[in-house]
Amino acid sequence: MQNVLQYQGKYYVCGTGRQTLVKNKTSNDNYYLLTLAAIAEEIKHRKAERKTEVILAVGLPLSSFEREKQGFREYLLRKEQPVRFLYESELYEITIKDVKLFPQGYSALALHPEYLKNEPSVLLVDIGGWTVDLMRLDNAVPNAATCRSLELGVIRCIDETAEQVRRNTGLSVTETQIERVLRGESCSMAEEARRIIQENGRKYIERILSAVTESGFDLRAVPSVFMGGGSAILKRHVTTQDAICRPVFIEDVHANATGYERIVQQMWAR
Fold first, then answer.
1. Out of the domains of life, which is the source (predicted)?
2. Model's pTM, two decimal places?
C-alpha cells in the first residue's frame, strides 16, 4: 500500500511516472488527488493528527495568475468538507479551511531578498518541467508586462535527448539516467551515450538563452536568477562565453513551495 491513495472507492498509486501535459490543471482530478496525497505526507512528516484543518499554499505562473486563480482556488476548495480518504491504509479526515494563491518564482525570491538588494532590475528565469517562465523585477516589484512563458521545459530536453541516443547508439536510456548525466552525477552508461546527453544538454541551454533574448531580455545587461528543476542543468552547462550578467542559481526544487508556506506563516502570525 506504499504511496497508495484510496478516495471515493478508487485506488491511485502516486509517484509512478509523470503527468501528461495539460494547459489547465483543473481539467481533470489528477492534481487534486496528488494534493490529497501531499497533505497526508505533510501530516506524517510533521507527526500531526490525521483529523485536522489545513490551509493550502499553492502557486500559478505569473503569466496566467490573474486568469486562472479563481478557478484554481475553487478546484482545491471543494464543497465536500471534510475530505475523507485513505493513504497508505491510514484514514485521514481533512477540512481545507482556505487556499492561498501566490505567483511562482516571485514567492521563492521572498526567501532570498539578498538577490534583489541594491539591484534596480533583476530577471527571474524559472525552468520547470514543461515551461520556462520569465519575468523582470524592477525595484524588487514584478513587472507584469514582462511576463513570458516559453514551452521549453526540461521534459522536452529529456525526450529529445532520449530519441537522439536511441537513434545514434540503439540504446534506450531512461529519463532518470539522462537527468543524472545532465546534472553531472555518477551513472553507469556507455561513453558514447553519455557524450550525446552532455552535447544535447549544452544545445538545450543555448536554446533557452536564445529564446530569452528573443523575448526581449538582455541577459548580458541585467542580473539573472535561475531556479526550478532545470537550474542545475543550466549551471553545469553555461559558460563564460555566454556572458550572463551576475547569474544566481537556486537549485532547491522545493523553493517555490517553501516560499508559499513562509508567506502564509507570516500572514497567519499577523
1. Bacteria
2. 0.81
Instruction: Find the domain containing 146 and state its range.
Output: 116-154+181-252
Distance CA 145, CA 14 (A): 37
Decide if 25 is inside a domain: yes
pLDDT tens over the chain, length 270 residues: 899 999 999 999 987 766 666 667 788 888 999 999 999 999 999 999 999 999 999 988 777 788 889 999 999 998 888 999 999 999 999 999 999 998 888 888 878 888 888 899 999 999 988 889 898 999 988 888 888 888 888 988 999 999 999 999 999 999 989 999 998 888 899 999 999 999 999 999 999 999 999 999 999 999 999 998 888 888 888 888 888 988 999 888 888 888 899 889 888 887
Q: Does 109 reside within a domain?
A: no
The separation between the first and the last C-alpha atoms of the chain, rounded to the nearest angstrom, is 41
Same domain, 75 and 187: no
Nearest CA to 262 out of 59, 114, 95, 124 is that of 59
CATH value at residue 189: 3.30.420.40
Residues 6 or more apart from 67 whose CB is under 8 A from it?
A: none
Number of domains in the chain: 2
Answer yes or no: do 69 and 126 share one domain.
no
By three-state DSSP, how is residue 16 classified? coil
- Is 164 inside any structural domain? no
